User: What shape does this take?
Amino acid sequence: MMLATVFSRAQCGIEAPLVTVETHISNGLPAFNIVGLAETAVRESRDRVRSALLNAGFEFPARRITVNLAPADLPKEGGRFDLPIAISLLLASGQLECSGIAQYELIGELALTGMLRSVRGALPAAICCGKAGRQLLLPKTNQAEAAVAEQSTVLPAEHLLNICGHLSGEKPVIPASSDSISSRQTSSCFADMMDVHGQQRARRALEIAAAGSHNLLLSGPPGTGKTMLASRLPGILPALESNEALEVTAIYSVSTHNAAPEWKQRPFRAPHHTASAPALVGGGSHPLPGEISLAHHGVLFMDELPEYDRKVLEVLREPIESGRITISRARQQITYPARFQLIAAMNPCPCGYAGDKQRTCQCSPDQVSRYKRKLSGPLLDRFDLQIDVPRPESLPLPGDIPDKQPENSETIRQRVITARSRQLKRQNYCNQQLRGKMLEQHCLLEKPERDLLNQAMDRLGLSARACHRILRVARTIADLEGTDKIQRQHLAEALGYRLT
Ligand SMILES: [Zn+2]
Assistant: This one.
């Protein structure tokens, strides 16, 4: 055979489109060309493939070799095509025989020795390969990640020769098993709510936020436990469903952050306020997922919110609504999922002590208003719950016996799960996403409650958007209580969750 075709997968966001690697060997002056929008990395792969073949004891044909990666308009980066190019070359030159090559897909970078090196995005490739009914041959170092795709057959190998041994039928590769993953129990690694003493109002707000997936803004002087509260949110959320966990793992698979959260554990990301826009929302010439995508199905914590670059904050508004982010580049447009729950913290003023009983605020009224103006109205509207976290009246001293042991995370989590299942049964998503008609339908108020809300709107000068926020929160409070109707006390409590 002078012509061989092998299947592989490119990486495009968390998609893995099929790539066909065609190799033709013809007579003529010795040459080795790779065509099909091959970028620098693919051109470099020429040299790696040549060395790997020679070092693995094969012959490199001294003839005219043309490799075509199709479709041509698909951006292809990285060394992931080394392995399929090498195999197609061996097939085309008759050094390897495999009649069933069409049932395989291959990805992997080659070291000069012929050893296989891991590639980014092995999981999306494994998922797509399984859907196409083929088996995936890939580097052993990608095995754990790819094996999460339970419906796919993943064949891990260490060396080019192992792959050849499998394809020729001499020594089959043992498929990676995925049993360990599906049966793996999730143990919560998050800090427990039991350690949060006092702060009853903040604890309650956190529970409501968890139950309705609402975004939460905490405002208070430094050292009142805002970070402590936020980091405990994932621990009171329900575990991820398998399909959600698969999405999360796929995002980490294509990112440069190799440590994905434990299987079915919700991610918790806390980027620093100096983070750039690409780091936060995603970017680069081959756009990588940013913090908001790494927090998909989990929690994004932004401490000292007004300190972030204002442009960065404005970019956030769209993904908060849509649950995804689209990054446009000259040649491609990539969409990453970004359905995260946002918890933000801020000081009441630049020095942090406005309204504090223990210390005096040093800021001028002008400084305070400039500080608050950094957060635009539309952004603030994305926080259904906004609360002050004041310094506790008296801190418990070592040796003091607390009146009552605070509830632990698991107890709260059970209530959250019950409240969430009510929402999913009613509208198929969390209350945070209630908008327009659905909001009207599911947050119906009777006359006395409607009057109460109207009065509050007049008295406090609330906008229509603010009014919707209050309705969504009241809906969640009623769900936590297990009632279908929003009652007066639910509405009254919801009205209290706004900054003064
Ligand atoms: Zn101040």
In short: The mean pLDDT is 88. The CA atoms of residues 192 and 409 lie 5 Å apart.
